[in-house]
Amino acid sequence: MTTPKTFGQQLGRRSWAEPWKIKMVEPLTMTERPQREAALTAAGYNTFLLRSRDVYIDLLTDSGTSAMSDRQWAGMMLGDEAYAGSENYYHLEAAVQQYYGYKYLVPTHQGRGAEHLISRSAIKPGQYVPGNMYFTTTRLHQEMAGGIFVDVIGDVAHDPQDRSPFKGDIDISKLDALVAKEGAAKIAYISLAATVNMAGGQPVSMANVKALRAWCDTHGVKLYLDATRAVENAYFIQEREEGYADWGVADILRDFCGYTDGAWMSAKKDSLVNIGGWVAVNEWELFEEMRNLVVVFEGLHTYGGLAGRDMEAMAIGIKESVQDAYIRARIGQVRYLGMLLEEWGIPMMEPVGGHAIFLDARRFYPQLTQDDFPAQTLAAELYLDSGIRAMERGIVSAGRDPKTGDHHRPKLELTRLTIPRRVYTQAHMDVVAESVKAVFDARERVRGLTMTYEPKYLRFFQARFEPKA
Prior knowledge:
The protein is built from 17 helices and 14 strands. It is an alpha/beta fold and 469 residues long. The strands form five sheets. It has a five-stranded mixed sheet, sandwiched between helices. Strands 9-12-11 form a three-stranded antiparallel sheet. The protein has a two-stranded parallel sheet with strand order 1-10. The protein is globular and about 60 Å long. The two termini are 31 Å apart.
C-alpha cells in the first residue's frame, strides 16, 4: 500500500494542525468483525439502526455531533429557563441579526421544525418550489404543504467527475422555462441551499445568488435560503470566487444572505451545537404567521422547543463558526481525507465539498444496478470492514414518486462520510481512508442488497435490508 503524503507535503508547505486542544475525551469502542456482522444483521443492514456503542468512528452525520467549545459549555450554565422572554432568546436573536442579517427570528428545536414552519406558511397547494437539488426533509415538508418540487440546479451538479468550482449554482434558464410553462404566480418561492448536501456539499457562488435576486425582483418571487451550511459556502466563495480573497468569512456570509428574503437553519451543523434551529425573515407578515404556528408545533416564540441553555450555546456557536481559522481547519480536515482517497484512485464526488466525502457508489460497484442499492451496500461494507459508520445518499434517500409509486432515481448514487466538527483528528481520517481502500480492493465480490422493510416517510432512516445471495 502506498503511504500517502501529509496534507502539508501535498500542498508544498508544512502541515497544519487543528486550531483547538483537547480538554475532555470520550472513549471509542473497537470491535471485531464477528461482532460487527451480528450488529449489522440486527440493524437490517441500515447504518441508522446501529447502536452507537457498536460504532468505532461515527461519520453518519454532522448534525448535532459537533464538539462544543469551553465557552459554549460555560454559556450553558447561564441558561435562563423562563417559559416566556428568555434572555438567551435575545442573545440568539442578536447573533442571527449580526451574522446573517435577517430582521425577525423564530427558534425551533432543529432544522426540520424550521422547514415545517416556512413550508406551511409560504406554500399554497399546487404551487411549485424550484430548488438547487432536493434535500430529504426539505422536500417532504414542501410536498406535505402541497408544493411541487422542481430541480433547477445546473447539470454539472449531477456529474461526480466534473470539477466546476460552484456546482451548487441554480441554472436560471430552468427557472425561465418553469415560468414560461406555469407562470411566476405558480411559484411559491425559490429554495436555495448553500451548500448543496445531496450534490456532495457543493457551494453556490456569490454571482449566482446576485443573479437570482435580480431574477426574483423581476418576477415577483421570494428567495429563501437553507443556511444550514452557509458558513462553509462562504469559505468556498472566499477561496474560489474572484474578488473575495481579502474578505472575511463573516462578511461574505452576511453579504450572501443579504440577497435573500429569509432563511431556515439547522444549527446542529454550522453553529456547532447538539440541538437547535431557527427560521428568520425580513417580512413582518410571514414572521407573524410563523410566530403563531411555532406555538402550536414547537413552543412559545421565545424558545421554540429549546431550553434557554441551548439557545445560549447556539448564539455562541454562531460567533465561533465564522472565525476564519476555525472554518479553514474544518474544511481542511475534510480535504485531507479526500486527498488520501484521491491518491488511491477512489471514485468520489469532485471537487471535495464542505462537510463530507461522498463516495461514488456507481463507479465503486459498476456490477450493481440502482435496484441493488449500491450506496447502501457501500455503507454496510465500510462498517463490516472497520466499524466506521457512513450513510447512503442515493436511491434509498430519494424515496418514491407519490404519483407513480416507483423509486425516484437520482443520477447521483453516493455514500457519505460526514465529518463532525472538532471531534476527530487527522489520525482518525487515516483510519477511515485505509478502510475505504480495503473495501474498494474487495469491490468485485459484492452483490448488493434487497429491501425487506420500507417505512412510509423518509425511508432511509428506518428501512431494512438483507444481502443478495
